[in-house]
Amino acid sequence: MACENNLVVKQIMDLYSQISNLESLKPSKNVDTLFGQLVSTCLPTDTNIDVTKIHDEKVKDMRSHLIKLCGEAEGYLEQHFSTIIGSFEDNPLNHLHIFPYYNNYLKLSKLEFDLLAQHTSHVPTKIAFIGSGPMPLTSIVLAKFHLPNTTIHNFDIDSQANALASNLVSRDPDLSKRMIFHTTDVLNAKEGLDKYDVVFLAALVGMDKESKVKAIEHLEKHMAPGAVLMLRSAHGLRAFLYPIVDSCDLKGFEVLTIYHPSDDVVNSVVIARKLGGSSEARSSQIGRCVFMPCNCSKVHAIINSRGMKKSMIEEFSAIE
């Protein structure tokens, strides 16, 4: 159990103290340095710290506030670089590498595509991305490199963010036709959500447990039965940076995979399928997701073409 006497937690609390006293979270040398140190501190996976078991109220409150600060800083960072990249007169998509975390998005999007391919029998024709922001890199990377015939609808509550994002793809002859932007709160998006084969919920949508669950419950009400929900979570120390999505938060969904990266990709990936269909299908699936006990999980390694362990996936299987 972590507490403020733990050395790593002390380091995180010290960085939190410095970050929370900053006058602005907009990109600057000091801001970039502090958040870089924070991410480096939270990346190690060889730790026994489980933030869900923290009982120290001071640490719990710090984590809650730190996650919100990280979300705010990430928003400013994306806005800053989207403005710069969008100012190029040629195709802005040729300059995405300027964004400091572009390579991480390449890895994360490839990971999500590969995991999605394991659980879908066809290439999705329409995808919704909820909380796409001013720099919709996941949508861009998926459309550009992995899903060349898929239309991606991007939803964000911020009209300025959508204007910046739309500008990034406006001069691309392909993505300008396949990337569509909607300015709305996810909780107001009802009609049409049942038309998407896959729905992505961004990590920054719902920065606390209550609002995250509220967004998931809304999607469960309006997604089509059998549609796939992709979410981003966090594990270990990385949960000081992003909210955790637990299987118990996904009532009405069949949890297919929870993947915890061990490299510099910070977010965990959760894949779930909306329950529905025949009553027989529903009854066979309820035990797999709505009332998920701890002993129904199994862990296995993905083996690459050379037979080497690449990473670990936690998959939830049916109760026998």
From TrEMBL:
GO molecular-function terms, A-Z: nicotianamine synthase activity
Pfam entry (one): NAS
Cited InterPro entries: Nicotian_synth, SAM-dependent_MTases_sf
This protein's record includes keyword Transferase: yes
UniProt xrefs under PROSITE patterns: NAS
Catalysed reactions, semicolon-separated: 3 S-adenosyl-L-methionine = nicotianamine + 3 S-methyl-5'-thioadenosine + 3 H(+)
Annotated GO biological process: nicotianamine biosynthetic process; phloem transport; pollen development; pollen tube growth
UniProt keyword terms in alphabetical order: S-adenosyl-L-methionine, Transferase
E.C. numbers: 2.5.1.43
Domain of life, per lineage: Eukaryota
Transferase listed as a keyword: yes
Record-stated family: Belongs to the nicotianamine synthase (NAS)-like family.
Function recorded in the entry: Synthesizes nicotianamine, a polyamine which serves as a sensor for the physiological iron status within the plant, and/or might be involved in the transport of iron.
Protein name according to UniProt: Nicotianamine synthase
Organism field: Thlaspi arvense
